[in-house]
Amino acid sequence: MNIFRFVGDMSHLASFFLLLAKLIYTKSSTGVSLKTQALYLTVFVCRYLDLLVAFVSWYNELMKIFFIAASAYIVYVVATSTRNSNASDTYRVEFLVIPALVLACFVNETHWSKGGWSLNVMEILWAFSIYLEAVAVLPQLKMLHQLEDTTNITMHYMASLGIYRAFYLLNWVYRLYYEGYWHPIAVVAGIVQTLLYADFFILYYQSVLLRLPS
Amino acid sequence: SAKADSKDEL
Questions:
Q1: Which one of A42, A74, A85, A177 counts the least CB within 10 Å of its CB?
Q2: Does residue B3 carry a pLDDT above 60?
Q3: Over pLDDT 70: what percentage of chain B?
Q4: Which of A43, A23, A21 lies closest to A137 in space, CA to CA?
């Protein structure tokens, strides 16, 4: 594992702790999009089905289990929050889920000549998870643009997700150059996903960094 | 080897 991948993963891990800290310590899920969190849970469950068939490393296994468990817990907390004022969580997620699923059926890494039926279904779900992750942040972005009182911790959560994506791009450049590792589906979707965060970082700069006491 | 084996990222 190279340093870019590791920093990306740690930033991704930090994003979970930031969101959990916000939910637990402020006892409020205001400003957190349930839709985005439910999409992330879907992403992790679909992508990490390979937990059942392929062992890569203990690092990978534990991270995958943590991502599924933490996002399930976050979805539970946000969904059951009584002081939830998420009337602005209005993104039409079917416009994200259905195209991602259709695209995954046609553009994926299946090899029907090799492997069994179940492995190929896993490949379609893997591609679906990649496409869905690329756009899963959109409901959260829409909320951030609509809400005035967005807490800094939610913004830091988003920033750590953006850093995770940026470092994964660097990781792929590194791996392509030194290892010849190349998953075009993941890379193209990853570039789209990272570009979506560019919009967020402008907001982050204006609303958080410019407000920091000097 | 199975294709899933080559996916070692998160």
A1: A177
A2: no
A3: 50
A4: A43
User: Between B5, B9, B10, which is nearest A54 by CB?
Assistant: B5
* B8 shares contact with chain A (CB less than 8 Å): yes
| CA-based nearest distance A39→chain B, Å | 16
Nearest to A160 by CA among A149, A152, A150: A152
CA angle A95–A84–A202, rounded 5-degree value: 60
CA distance A100 to A91: 16
Higher pLDDT: B4 or A134? It is A134
A5 lies within 8 A of chain B by CB: yes
SS (HEC) of A101-130: HHHHHHCCCCCCCCCCHHHHHHHHHHHHHH
Q: Looking at the complex, does the CB of residue A63 fall below 8 Å from at least one CB of chain B?
A: yes
Count of other CB atoms within 10 angstroms of residue A4: 18
Each residue's pLDDT tens digit, A44-72: 999 999 998 889 999 999 999 999 999 99
Give the residue among A156, A168, A164, A162 at the shortest CA–CA distance from A198. Answer: A162
Contact of A15 with A167, CB cutoff 8 Å: no
Is A60 in contact with B8 (Cβ distance < 8 A)?
yes
